[in-house]
Amino acid sequence: MIENLTPAEAWALLQENPHAVLVDVRTKMEHSFVGHPLGAVHIAWKEAPNMQLNPNFVTEVQHLVSDKTAPILLLCRSGQRSLDAAAALQAAGYLRPINILDGFEGALDTQKHRGKLSGWRFCGLPWQQS
Protein backbone atom coordinates (compact mmCIF):
# COMPACT_ATOMS: atom_id res chain seq x y z
CA MET A 1 0.00 0.00 0.00
CA ILE A 2 1.34 3.41 -0.98
CA GLU A 3 1.61 5.97 1.79
CA ASN A 4 -0.17 9.28 1.12
CA LEU A 5 0.68 12.58 2.80
CA THR A 6 -0.81 16.03 2.51
CA PRO A 7 1.53 18.72 1.20
CA ALA A 8 2.01 20.06 4.75
CA GLU A 9 2.82 16.59 6.09
CA ALA A 10 5.26 16.03 3.21
CA TRP A 11 7.01 19.35 3.93
CA ALA A 12 7.29 18.43 7.63
CA LEU A 13 8.82 15.04 6.74
CA LEU A 14 11.35 16.71 4.45
CA GLN A 15 12.36 19.03 7.29
CA GLU A 16 12.62 16.22 9.85
CA ASN A 17 14.32 13.50 7.81
CA PRO A 18 17.60 14.35 6.04
CA HIS A 19 17.32 11.14 3.97
CA ALA A 20 13.92 12.08 2.50
CA VAL A 21 13.96 13.09 -1.17
CA LEU A 22 11.31 15.07 -3.05
CA VAL A 23 10.84 14.09 -6.70
CA ASP A 24 8.68 16.20 -9.01
CA VAL A 25 7.32 13.77 -11.60
CA ARG A 26 5.57 16.35 -13.81
CA THR A 27 6.69 17.29 -17.29
CA LYS A 28 9.70 19.54 -17.80
CA MET A 29 7.38 22.39 -18.86
CA GLU A 30 5.21 22.06 -15.74
CA HIS A 31 8.25 21.93 -13.49
CA SER A 32 9.85 25.00 -15.10
CA PHE A 33 6.94 27.27 -15.92
CA VAL A 34 4.20 26.41 -13.40
CA GLY A 35 6.75 26.20 -10.59
CA HIS A 36 8.06 23.55 -8.26
CA PRO A 37 8.76 23.02 -4.56
CA LEU A 38 12.12 24.22 -3.32
CA GLY A 39 14.60 21.37 -3.35
CA ALA A 40 12.54 19.14 -5.64
CA VAL A 41 14.45 16.99 -8.09
CA HIS A 42 12.76 16.73 -11.47
CA ILE A 43 12.35 13.26 -12.97
CA ALA A 44 9.35 13.12 -15.32
CA TRP A 45 7.00 10.14 -15.05
CA LYS A 46 5.45 11.04 -18.42
CA GLU A 47 6.64 13.67 -20.86
CA ALA A 48 4.93 15.99 -23.31
CA PRO A 49 3.87 16.28 -26.03
CA ASN A 50 2.46 12.74 -26.15
CA MET A 51 2.59 12.06 -22.41
CA GLN A 52 4.65 8.94 -23.04
CA LEU A 53 5.80 7.02 -19.99
CA ASN A 54 9.45 7.70 -19.19
CA PRO A 55 11.04 4.24 -19.61
CA ASN A 56 14.02 5.36 -17.51
CA PHE A 57 12.04 6.69 -14.54
CA VAL A 58 12.98 3.96 -12.05
CA THR A 59 16.60 3.92 -13.22
CA GLU A 60 16.86 7.70 -12.82
CA VAL A 61 15.43 7.47 -9.30
CA GLN A 62 17.89 4.65 -8.50
CA HIS A 63 20.77 6.94 -9.52
CA LEU A 64 19.39 9.64 -7.24
CA VAL A 65 18.44 7.42 -4.27
CA SER A 66 20.30 4.15 -3.84
CA ASP A 67 18.94 3.55 -0.31
CA LYS A 68 15.69 1.67 -0.85
CA THR A 69 14.59 2.45 2.71
CA ALA A 70 14.74 6.24 2.25
CA PRO A 71 11.44 8.10 1.99
CA ILE A 72 10.86 9.25 -1.58
CA LEU A 73 8.11 11.84 -1.78
CA LEU A 74 6.51 12.10 -5.22
CA LEU A 75 4.62 15.13 -6.49
CA CYS A 76 2.71 15.82 -9.70
CA ARG A 77 -0.02 18.30 -10.64
CA SER A 78 -2.89 16.78 -8.69
CA GLY A 79 -1.75 13.45 -7.22
CA GLN A 80 -2.39 10.78 -9.88
CA ARG A 81 0.87 10.54 -11.83
CA SER A 82 2.77 10.60 -8.54
CA LEU A 83 0.69 7.69 -7.27
CA ASP A 84 1.52 5.68 -10.40
CA ALA A 85 5.20 6.58 -10.04
CA ALA A 86 5.13 5.53 -6.37
CA ALA A 87 3.69 2.14 -7.37
CA ALA A 88 6.51 1.67 -9.91
CA LEU A 89 9.11 2.44 -7.24
CA GLN A 90 7.45 0.08 -4.80
CA ALA A 91 7.54 -2.66 -7.46
CA ALA A 92 11.27 -1.93 -7.88
CA GLY A 93 11.86 -2.62 -4.20
CA TYR A 94 11.63 0.82 -2.61
CA LEU A 95 10.10 0.49 0.83
CA ARG A 96 8.79 4.02 1.33
CA PRO A 97 7.56 5.75 -1.81
CA ILE A 98 5.12 8.46 -0.72
CA ASN A 99 2.43 10.11 -2.81
CA ILE A 100 1.75 13.78 -2.06
CA LEU A 101 -2.01 14.22 -2.08
CA ASP A 102 -3.38 16.99 -4.32
CA GLY A 103 0.06 17.52 -5.89
CA PHE A 104 1.43 20.95 -6.71
CA GLU A 105 -1.72 22.58 -8.09
CA GLY A 106 -4.53 20.65 -6.40
CA ALA A 107 -8.03 19.74 -7.47
CA LEU A 108 -10.18 21.58 -9.99
CA ASP A 109 -12.69 24.06 -8.60
CA THR A 110 -16.18 24.60 -10.04
CA GLN A 111 -14.72 26.83 -12.78
CA LYS A 112 -12.10 24.21 -13.72
CA HIS A 113 -9.21 26.15 -12.19
CA ARG A 114 -6.48 24.57 -10.09
CA GLY A 115 -4.67 26.12 -7.15
CA LYS A 116 -7.77 27.49 -5.42
CA LEU A 117 -8.72 24.50 -3.27
CA SER A 118 -5.67 22.42 -2.44
CA GLY A 119 -2.11 21.52 -3.39
CA TRP A 120 1.42 22.55 -2.50
CA ARG A 121 1.09 26.19 -3.65
CA PHE A 122 -2.36 26.59 -2.09
CA CYS A 123 -0.88 25.51 1.26
CA GLY A 124 1.70 28.30 1.03
CA LEU A 125 4.67 25.94 1.08
CA PRO A 126 8.01 27.09 -0.40
CA TRP A 127 8.19 27.01 -4.20
CA GLN A 128 9.84 28.76 -7.11
CA GLN A 129 9.63 29.15 -10.87
CA SER A 130 12.55 28.67 -13.23
Report on this structure.
The chain is of the alpha/beta class. The chain has one domain (3-125): Oxidized Rhodanese, domain 1 (3-Layer(aba) Sandwich), CATH 3.40.250.10. It is 28% helix and 19% strand. It contains four helices and nine strands. The strands form three sheets. The protein has a five-stranded parallel beta sheet with strand order 1-8-7-2-4. Strand 5 and strand 6 form a beta hairpin. The longest helix is centred in the middle third of the chain and has 11 residues, at 81-91. It is globular, with a radius of gyration of 14 Å. The model has no long low-confidence stretch (mean pLDDT 95).
Quick structural overview:
With 130 residues, this protein is α/β, with parallel strands linked by helices. It has helices at 7-16, 28-34, 57-64, 81-91; strands at 3-5, 21-24, 36-37, 41-42, 46-47, 52-53, 72-75, 97-100, 127-128.
Write the layout of secondary structure elements.
Elements: E1 3-5, H1 7-16, E2 21-24, H2 28-34, E3 36-37, E4 41-42, E5 46-47, E6 52-53, H3 57-64, E7 72-75, H4 81-91, E8 97-100, E9 127-128
